[in-house]
Design brief:
The chain has 456 residues and is mainly beta. It folds into three domains: 135 residues, Immunoglobulins (Immunoglobulin-like, Sandwich); 150 residues, Sandwich (Immunoglobulin-like); 72 residues, no CATH class. The chain has eight helices and 23 strands.
Length: 456
């Protein structure tokens, strides 16, 4: 039996097809050593699998196989089985969807993506195949990965298939269909080959838009400025779709790098339906953090960053509360901070959690988590700075940075100094109200300056 036939032959004695369909989508990212990473997304109706009685409940047993095929050869293959359990089979409907994800690797080229989903109880299977082209992302020209779109983003509590490396679970929408249950689409992609200099990292700009199929922009955000973390960057954002009528659209992203005078763009097609009889393709968006069952230490870790923006009475109430009280304070923390209660999501909460993900990615050190650093606290409270001045170390001077916020209190600055020389910057001065103020902050930058001026 050839390798290709082996891939297409999922389980022995399989003859029938599922009555229910499943959805498949994918996104391609740059890997290492000239390889591309292909994330394959599945969305399967729960009633696609037969539930059989067990001791105290009902259980189904599913199987997934996905492979990249090139010229009748299997380049990469992943397979696994999974168990789903319910107490009552009446709870199982076709509107309930099971998301899954697989990761494959291959060199740039043209491939056949073959996926098979099987019910190991009934020995039935369904197959979906797609042709895809893996790009060479190179190392010089600015370019973007494919776009992953989602209707649900949650903080990672326990690592799983959907966990991204910046602390969030992103549940992809393999159907690319959204309806009025989704006020926003979450967008994830990666940026490669930014012009980057450690001494002057600089910034890049990104813009999000929704266009019709003729390319005409129906809604667009202003250019957003991002600090460069390195030669590559991760982008996660939300695009509101509440005002769009039913139809098919393209979600377009553009990135500009002024340092290299290069620009790159990428788009992703999606469908919007306003018919409530059609259920959403992915779980509900904007779910609260799963607080049930968390220990007091885990709740304290969640509340920790919130203390930067909490009122004193909220902090005191939290300290005095028992486990259930702390859980309720966190669960309702954002209720009074919703800038637009008419929408289904809390924009303030989303903005803060995006900031939290960024600081934990950018400012975490081996000894301290990003949100606990002075960089992290200021970023969480005031957002991204309007301008950053970076001063490297020298024989006479410690490295330091000055963050400018032009829109805060008419214009303020924050001065951070790496006192130890080990990359841990501390706030030494600010012109913002209620912040540390030290007009003689230069002594932290040049601690030996006063001694060097002494006449012997």
């Amino acid at each position: 039996m050839s390798k290709l036939k082996f891939v297409l032959f999922c389980v022995a004695l399989v003859a029938q097809l599922f009555a229910a369909e499943y959805e498949v989508d994918y996104a391609v990212f740059r890997g290492s050593e000239g390889m591309d990473i292909v994330e394959v997304y599945f969305l399967m109706p729960r009633n696609m699998f037969k539930f059989v009685p067990t001791a105290q409940q009902y259980q189904s047993h599913g199987f997934i196989r996905t492979a990249l095929i090139q010229q009748d050869s299997v380049v990469d293959i992943v397979e696994w089985d999974f168990i789903d359990q319910v107490r009552d089979t009446l709870q199982v409907t076709s509107e309930q969807k099971i998301p899954e994800i697989a990761t494959l690797q291959a060199k740039p080229g043209t491939y056949q993506l073959v996926t098979i989903v099987a019910d190991l109880t009934t020995r039935q299977q369904k197959k979906v195949s797609k042709q895809l082209i893996l790009r060479d992302f190179g190392t010089k020209d600015l370019c973007l990965s494919d776009i992953q779109i989602s209707g649900q983003v949650d903080k990672t509590r326990q690592q799983n298939r959907f966990s991204k490396y910046f602390g969030y679970d992103i549940i992809p929408n393999a159907s690319t269909i959204f309806n009025e249950s989704y006020p926003a689409i979450y967008v994830f992609f990666e940026v490669y080959n930014l012009g980057f200099d450690k001494t002057q990292p600089g910034e890049y700009k990104v813009k999000y838009a929704v266009t019709d199929l003729n390319g005409e922009a129906l809604q667009a955000q202003d250019w957003l400025t991002r600090p460069k973390p390195g030669k590559s960057a991760v982008e996660i954002n939300q695009v509101m779709i509440t005002t769009l009528p039913a139809g098919v659209y393209d979600l377009k992203v553009e990135v500009k790098d002024d340092a290299t005078n290069q620009q790159a763009s990428m788009s992703k097609r999606f469908r919007l339906t306003r018919d409530r009889s059609r259920q959403p393709a992915t779980p509900q968006v904007g779910q609260d953090l799963r607080l049930e069952g968390l220990t007091e230490a885990e709740l304290d870790e969640i509340f920790g960053p919130l203390k930067y923006i909490a009122k004193n009475i909220e902090i005191q109430r939290y300290k005095k509360s028992d486990l259930e009280g702390k859980r309720q304070i966190i669960a309702h923390f954002w209720d009074s901070r919703d800038r637009d209660p008419s929408t289904l999501i809390n924009e303030s909460k989303i903005e803060f959690e995006n900031r939290l993900a960024y600081v934990n990615q950018q400012f975490t050190t081996p000894r301290i988590k990003g949100w606990r650093t002075d960089f992290g606290r200021v970023y969480l409270m005031y957002g991204p700075p309007s301008e950053i001045e970076r001063y490297p170390s020298s024989l006479e001077r410690k490295p330091y940075q000055i963050w400018h916020y032009h829109e805060v209190e008419g214009g303020v600055i924050f001065v951070f100094v790496d006192k130890s020389g080990f990359g841990q910057y501390e706030l030494v001065h600010s012109t913002a109200r209620s912040e540390l103020q030290d007009t003689d902050w230069q002594r932290w930058v040049e601690p030996n300056a006063s001694q060097s001026n002494i006449q012997w």
